[in-house]
Amino acid sequence: MQGVQIFGVKNSQATRAAERFFKERRVTIQMVDLKQRALAAGEIRRFVEKFGWDALLDRDGKAYTDAGLKYLKVSEADLLARIEKEPLLLRLPLVRGANGLSVGKDEEAWKAMASAK
């Protein structure tokens, strides 16, 4: 069985839920704590291409409001730079596995990843 890569932060309830989900199914996990290591721009683009910025950004989150992004129009390059500094701008966790990607708590996508051989 292939493993999954979870991008998130340790104190995120959704990130912990993803870890628990895959551990219960004995799926190998590579956890990337975005507070310790920033998400590469290429990795972010992979998620953006599949889901778009609207699905990726946590527009209801405190980090998004505190950054003033509700009122600013920023370029994609500026947005990428902001995400590298503040991963909580994203809907976490981001999960990659078995040729699939998911954003946020998406148990249907996780089931597909867990069952892929």
Structural summary, described in words:
- The chain has 117 residues and is an alpha+beta fold.
- The chain has one domain (4-115): Glutaredoxin, CATH 3.40.30.
- Helices cover 44% and strands 15% of the residues.
- The protein has helices spanning 13-24, 41-51, 53-56, 62-66, 76-85, 107-115; strands at residues 4-8, 29-33, 94-97, 100-103.
- The protein has a 4-stranded mixed sheet with strand order 2-1-3-4, sandwiched between helices.
- Strand 3 (94-97) and strand 4 (100-103) form a beta hairpin.
- The longest helix has 12 residues, at 13-24.
- It is globular.
- The N and C termini lie close together (5 Å).
- The mean pLDDT is 91.
How does CATH name the architecture? 3-Layer(aba) Sandwich
Helix/strand order:
EHEHHHHEEH
Based on Cα principal axes, name the global outline: globular
Mean pLDDT: 91
Write the CATH homologous superfamily. Glutaredoxin
β-sheet strand percentage: 15-25%
Q: Radius of gyration, Cα only, in angstroms?
A: 14 Å
Highest CATH level, the class = Alpha Beta
User: Taking strands numbered 1, 2, ... along the chain, how are they ordered across the largest sheet?
Assistant: 2-1-3-4
Q: Uncertain segments of ≥5 residues (pLDDT<50)?
A: none
Q: What percent of the residues sit in helical stretches (DSSP H or I)?
A: 40-55%
How many helices? The count is 6
The structural domain count equals: 1
Provide the structure class.
Answer: alpha+beta
Report the biggest beta sheet as strand number plus sense, adding barrel if it closes: 4 strands, mixed
CA(first)-CA(last) distance: 5 Å
Query: How many DSSP-defined strands?
Result: 4
Q: CATH topology, which one?
A: Glutaredoxin
